[in-house]
Amino acid sequence: GMAVKDPNLPHGLRLVIEDYPYAVDSLEIWSAIKSWVEEYCSFYYETDSVVQKVAELQSWWKELREKGHGDKKDEPWWPKMQTHEELVETCTIIIWIASALRAAVNFGQYPYAGYLPNRPTISRGFMPEVSTPEYEELKLDLDKRDNPEWTFDTKPLEAFERFGKKLAEIEDRIMTMNNDKKWKNRAGPVKVPFTLLYPTSEGGLTGMGISNSVSI
């Protein structure tokens, strides 16, 4: 495998290949997400019994399995959603897939896939013109759905602020490694730094930045 369990390391894993930018940066981001989820869930679902008794939570999990993945709903590997630990692990996975994993596999495609002859299958129809009803139907600005008043509880807000600071620290470390010639797969002869898991990005096609949800 690419990693072996090692409880003595911060993330509990030791990478077989140290100079593996995606794996190194992913572990950092994953751990930050999990810490945030752990803190958040501890405010509202602090015990196993609370997880079991909250009807909305159990209903959400039932819908996710039976409607979202109806063809797999009877598989034995599904978490039972009976413990605080299962809730944290599940939410961490969902957030990871919709944000960092999506950024890593999607935002680096444009330099190749944005050139039409490289992907002729995308030319099945004309792109809708800007300002047409068809264009507006396909566009969703996630920033406009942000609610700064998502909670008034002090402790979750403080935890969220710590999460943001942690991501900023991770980005600084990634940038430092991308300029360190010790890491050949970041700052080697080809000089292609790994930017796909930078937490932030300016506007436009930058090949970096982790969005809050799936974004195309």
Q: SSE layout and pairings?
A:
Blueprint: E1 3-5, E2 13-15, H1 21-44, H2 48-53, H3 55-68, H4 84-106, H5 110-113, H6 133-138, H7 154-178, H8 184-187
Antiparallel strand pairs: 1-2
Helix pairs in contact: 1-4, 1-7
Can you walk me through this structure?
InterPro entries: LipOase, LipOase_C, LipOase_C_sf. The protein has a single domain, classed as Up-down Bundle (Lipoxygenase-1, domain 5), CATH 1.20.245.10. The mean pLDDT is 91. It is mainly alpha-helical and 216 residues long. The chain is built from eight helices and two strands; from the N terminus they run ββαααααααα. It has a two-stranded antiparallel ribbon with strand order 1-2. Helices cover 49% and strands 3% of the residues.
List keywords for this structure.
216 residues, mainly alpha, Lipoxygenase-1, domain 5, 2 strands, globular
Brief description of this entry?
This protein is mostly helical. Helices cover 49% and strands 3% of the residues. The relative contact order is 0.14.
From the 3D structure, determine the CATH topology.
Lipoxygenase-1, domain 5
What's the structural domain tally?
1
Helix amount, in percent? 40-55%
The number of E-state strands comes to: 2
Percentage of β-strand residues: under 5%
Uncertain stretches? none
Order of helices and strands: EEHHHHHHHH
Strand order of the largest sheet: 1-2
Rounded average pLDDT: 91
The end-to-end span amounts to 31 Å
Count of individual helical segments = 8
CATH superfamily: Lipoxygenase-1, Domain 5
Overall 3D geometry?
Answer: globular
Radius of gyration: 20 Å
CATH architecture label: Up-down Bundle
Largest sheet: 2 strands, antiparallel
Structural class: mainly alpha
Reading off the top of the CATH hierarchy, the class is best stated as Mainly Alpha
GO molecular function, one term: metal ion binding
Keywords: Dioxygenase, Metal-binding, Oxidoreductase
Domain Lipoxygenase: 1-216
Pfam families: Lipoxygenase (PF00305)
